Write the structure tokens for this entry.
Amino acid sequence: MDFTYDDEQEALREAVRGLVGKAYADFEQRRQTVKRDPGFDEALWGRLAEMGVLGLPFAEDDGGMGAGPIEVGIVAQELGRVLAPEPFLTSVVLAGGLVAAAGSAEQRAEVLGALSAGESVLAFAHAEPGSRWEASATAVSATQSEDSWTLTGVKEPVPHGARADLLVVSAALPDGGTGLFLVSPEGVARDGYPTHDGGRAARISFDATPATPLGVGGDATAHIESATAAAVIAAANEAVGAMQVALPTTTEYLTSRKQFGVPLNTFQSLSFRAADMYVSLELAQSVALWASMVLDADPASAQKAAARAGLQVSRAGRHIGQEAIQLHGGIGMTAEYSIGSYTSHLTALDHLLGDGNHHLAALSSAVGGYAEADPLP
Amino acid sequence: MQLELSPEDAAFRDEMRTFFTTEVPQAIRDAVASRQELSKDQIVESQRILNKHGLAVPHWPTEWGGQDWSPLRRHIWHEEMQRAGVPLPLAFNASMVGPVIAAFGSQEQKERFLPPTANLDIWWSQGFSEPDAGSDLASLRTTAVRDGDDYVVNGQKTWTTLGQHGDWIFCLVRTDPDAKKQRGISFLLIDMTSPGLTVRPIELIDGGVEVNEVWFEDVRVPAENLVGEENHGWDYAKFLLGNERVGVAPVGSTKRVLAQAKEWARATSYAGGSLLDDPMTASRIAELENELLALELTALRVVANSADGKPHPASSVLKLKGSELQQAVSELVVDLAGPASLASGAGDGSSLEQWQHRATPAYLNLRKASIYGGSNEIQRQIIAKTILGL
Ligand SMILES: Cc1cc2nc3c(=O)[nH]c(=O)nc-3n(C[C@H](O)[C@H](O)[C@H](O)COP(=O)(O)OP(=O)(O)OC[C@H]3O[C@@H](n4cnc5c(N)ncnc54)[C@H](O)[C@@H]3O)c2cc1C
């Protein structure tokens, strides 16, 4: 096992940091960007496409770069460090990942080609009122008549659902199971709104809306599970990036803020808390990187690794997010200063694809089946 | 030791329960129950109803509207109010400046300020904290210089909660720049419409605007608005902060949110049943309930021991644990909302529930509870020093 990145991977990190890290070096830039729709910087999205980042995980034949989860993790970390609002995770990793896994060759070339080129933003419409991160769909159902399919029902919240140029939609199939469909959002009722962390989500209502099955059609639950696992691992990397900045932001504040005539870091009760945050970060980072390697080497066991990373990062994100605000005092509560937005985004990442206890439930149900949790496959 | 309430206290509790659930408009109590931000009008209306019936400031001296209740009855009043979703009387008026004026103000100040303060005809703001004087409040730098019959005030206050509604602000100001820290501070009442006083909003991480900066540029304040003696303001502030600590342990409202959370969990389907059947969710709720019970019992026990009117030192336990539990319950609600917790900005057309929209903003907003009113680190320091002698 080797946790070091190779030269090419380091170069990727440098390139992404040079672009995204620079664009949002000033937190105010991020704040202004998320205030306006679509909630991210379209020009920056285009430059990410030019850099190859939007096609990173897809096969070269499909218009992508043929890179793997390690590279995806690097990009996610860099975006996380500056809370970049561009929808890499939900559009590229998750929605794109589903098309890559389930789409026909033709669909992959067309959809992933446009996504990679920055010409089309993709969204995965999956969560439903009343759903809790299940892989199945119930509130939206698919109906077939002759060769054509239509969808009816409501999806909410759909990340970036209002801006998306194309939707990947999960729906209950007439004979059971959950299918995946491509839907053009033209004419579909979409109500978009901001999320607490400056992101965007939407309510999307389908009413006998024409839909095209992804690939051969049929039950796609397994695809949803594996694409979600890959996205959980990418989200864990993004959260690690965010925590990597939240911690030094806090320690720098502790050394510069003076009360009672001395810098706050003079109080051991505070500096020890920062030390505990560091412990949480290191452990979370280890599991997130390990899960990326598992996904790379052995995609079949990635779901369990994703649950482990999701659990560890959820706990760390809460610990670090809550303490970061507390150690700042009042300034940590303000929208103008960065740290509260880190906590807000960590909370959003935690609840996007399954929170810590969701992952813990999955792991708990399986503990009887093995003796030890081993890092090596 | 006796478990039951006396028949008289039990009757008192029923009386409070009936009053709060029938006299305070349902719309206001619903807004509290759904964790919405209340409007100024709603807060004012509610307090005036309470005041009309002698229930806004029962802890004040009787000649100014107080009730001379036992500590237990005061506790029952406080808990039943929260249980019913009645907004608590505005703390700045009822728990902070009112008791200070009643204890240390001149007769003229009492007559002029106490009745409208109880009735919320005057909305008070608290002008203590400054950018460089937070936990170390005594390092405050806003100055008041005597000039004839006035003080001239210059400086900046910050984190002024609901200062946008404020009519008057009670401030700690430095009147003797040469005295050591605590000794040069005075307690001044300032009309917020005075020329030279500016209020600027601060946006918080939940998107709400509930705190402000207040700037003073040569603001002239009549010397008659000084409370008590010049340079003795720190004593009055300590008295006030002791009261604040007791007031900020919101056991009743946390219990109410937790009871609601159980209903929300029950209404959420999960694994073929409801989320309330999920062992992990249920055990988390049970543990929170147990801690809240322990806190409520401690509040009752501590309250019974603070006979001389001074807060029991263990009141720091109430602030510390009370804010932690308030935060833990708000975190639980985010997890109950699950993926819907992202939909904080959803409008009326949303298919998700209102409580799901509010879950994360409420969670983020309540991070403040362990910061204001003397941060939880400061509470630990008080426990360590004054109780444990460390
Ligand atoms: C939402 C909100 C509303 C508020 N409303 C009002 C209001 O209406 N009026 C008003 O006057 N003030 C108000 N405050 C201000 C509040 O009282 C201060 O934020 C608080 O006193 C902490 O000060 P600070 O923010 O400057 O943090 P700092 O004092 O800088 O503290 C930063 C961190 O260091 C810790 N710390 C500081 N000193 C020590 C020490 N000696 N040992 C260990 N730890 C320490 C703190 O606990 C905190 O974790 C409000 C604050 C908030 C967040």
Summary: The pocket of flavin-adenine dinucleotide is lined by residues A 257, 259-260, 264, 267, 269-270, 326-327, 329-330, 333; B 126-129, 134-135, 159-161, 211, 368, 371-372, 375, 377-378, 381 (CB under 6 Å). Chain B touches chain A through 55 residues (CB under 8 Å). Residues 279-303 of chain B form the longest helix (25 residues).
